[in-house]
Amino acid sequence: MKKICLLVIASIMAVCFTACGKDTAEEQSRENLEFTVVSEDRLSDELKEILDQKKESAFKLTYADEGYLYICIGYGKQESGGYSVTVNDLYETENAIYVNTNLLGPKAGSTPATSPSYPYIVLKVEFREKTVVFD
């Protein structure tokens, strides 16, 4: 009877320690990526054309060129100016690249332009042959 109890306890402990170890391994494999925010005047003509075609509605796309990967996120047509896009997270795991951005509205008390705007951001990273996951 004692052997059965010890075996059950050992099995439960093994399961518990294995589960804890897996989370640690996942955290260790997450690596923040260095990136550059690319201004419109530094984009290739081809990428500018693609963005211009998609700007009316929200979009998420990637574009590879000359050893770099461009991650593009657009928020579609906004009724006024003064919007900006922030990067909350950009990291790589063993299987994918994850990106999370946020659209910020015009600052309180400011008088934004009355013409429509099309806020987007283009992030440049070294090329990696991985899927990009947009959070």
UniProtKB/TrEMBL annotation:
Keywords assigned: Signal
Pfam families in UniProt: PrcB_C
Stretches assigned to the PrcB C-terminal domain: 69-126
UniProt cross-references to InterPro entries, sorted A to Z: PrcB_C_dom
Signal sequence extent: 1-21
Protein's name in the database: PrcB C-terminal domain-containing protein
Record organism: Eisenbergiella tayi
Organism lineage: Bacteria, Bacillati, Bacillota, Clostridia, Lachnospirales
